[in-house]
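Known limitations

Files may contain more than one protein. Parsers should not assume a single record per file. Below, a two-record file is shown to illustrate correct handling: read the sequence, read the C-alpha cell line, then continue until end of file.
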Amino acid sequence: MSEKIEAAVEKYVASWAEPDAGMRRKVIAEIWAEDAIYKNPFVEFHGRKGVEDAVQAYDLFVATKGATFKVTKVDISMDAVRYTWEMTFPGAAEPEAIGTQVVILDENGLMANDHQFIDKAPTGMEELVHVGLDV
C-alpha cells in the first residue's frame, strides 16, 4: 500500500508542472476524493474542481519561469501522509520554494483532506496572497 501512496504523491506533484490542464484534471480525478478539501495557509478549496483550481503552479511558475518540482520525502502513518516538495528554477543552487503537505486518505485510499504548509515561500508570494492564489 505504501508504494501506491508514494506513487500517487509523486504523480500529484508532477501534475503541478503538467502543461495540459486536461491531464492535470485526469490526475486529480485518479487520486483525489470527489469531496476532497485542500487548504493552504491562505485559501480553502472544495471538491476535485477546487483542487484543480488550486493547482496553478504551472501557470505561475513553470510556463513563465521554467520551475521544476520534486518530492523530497514521504512519510505514511495509517491513513495520514506527510510529504515535502521543492520547487527549483533552472540554474538555481537552492530551491525557490519548499513545502510540506499533510494529507488524510479516505477509505478508498484517495486524498481527502490536504493541508499545505509553506516552509520557504517563493519570491513575490506576498503579492499572490492578496489575490488568493495557491503557490
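...continuing to the second record:
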Amino acid sequence: MQQPDSDLGSDSDLGPDLDPGPATEQPPSRAEPAELAGRLRAVIQQLLPLLRGLSRHRDLTPSRTAALAALAAHGPLRVSELAARMNIALSTTSRMVDLLDNSGWIARRPDPADQRASLISLNDDGLALLRTVRRETTGLLSERIAQLDPDRQQLLYEALPALEELVAWEKPPAGPQPR
C-alpha cells in the first residue's frame, strides 16, 4: 500500500489508490506504524479546529491554551522552562507570556533562586478559564462520542492507554542529533 504524504489533509482526499476499500475487507492483522501515524495526524488536525471553532473563547489560541495547561501542570515556571516544555522559541514564549499577563490569566513573581528571573504561574482567573475551556471541550467531545455505536465507543476507550503513552514520552534532547 502506498504511504500517504504526511503534509496532506485527510486520506480521503488522496484518490482511489489510497482508499482503504469496502468496509467488508478484513483489516490487516497488524497495522503499520506509518499508516497509524498518518491517520492519527489527520484526525487530530481535523478534531482540534472543530473544538476550537465551537469555543466561546476566541482570544484563547491553541498555543495560549497549551501554555495555560503547562503552567497548571508544572508551574510556576521560568519563561525559558515553559518554552522548553512547549518546544517553541524563547522569544515566541516571551511574547505569549506577555499576552497571557495582559489578559490577566497569569501571575509573575521574582524567582527566589535568581532575583533577575521571574516565575510565572496561573492566577485564579487563568485557572478558572482553563477549567471552563476543558469542560466545554470535554462536553463537545462527549456529545460526539455519544453518537458513536457502543462498539466504537469501546474501541476508543481501549485505544486511550496507547494514546496516553504517546504523549507521556520524553521529548528528545535539544541540539543536533547523531546520524
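Parsers that stop after the first record will miss the second one. For reference, the second record is described as follows. The chain has six helices and two strands.
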